[in-house]
Design a protein that fits this description.
The protein is an alpha+beta fold and 160 residues long. The protein has three helices and nine strands, in the order αβββββββββαα. Its EC number is 3.5.1.88.
Length: 160
Amino acid sequence: MAFRDIRIVGDPVLRTPCAPITTVDERVRTLVADLLETVDAEGRAGLAANQIGVGLRAFSWNVDDLGYVLNPRIVELSDDEFQDGDEGCLSVPKLWFPTRRAWYARVEGTDLDGNVVVVEGEGLMARCLQHEVDHLDGLLYLDRLDKDTRRQALRALRTL
């Protein structure tokens, strides 16, 4: 287990869709341990594998409890309730912008033993699930911003 450095916006690994995990070997077990250790710090809600430089479909979360999921996919989002609060990202440090997300999200994937994992939540947990699956698809929350806010965010990035 190791506390891993976070890749910052501009690193190509953050814009590359992650590959599915087809075999759970020692490398994947170490990845999960590292994801859990690295996300288990104050102020961290979620962490995708590519944020620590690994292009595999896995993420961890730290909202109400600590957990992980392999090969996650969003299977349900509320289509009539939304949240518009500020969102931040470990890979986009110090910047928070209003980001529209579904109020409820449900993700399905597997654990290290191949068992089905279902993770769902409202509010912050729903935001976390959507945010981390976006990472695994090569997206940043900045891509979800409305046009004017995105312009403001890109200007702010240049000052970091």
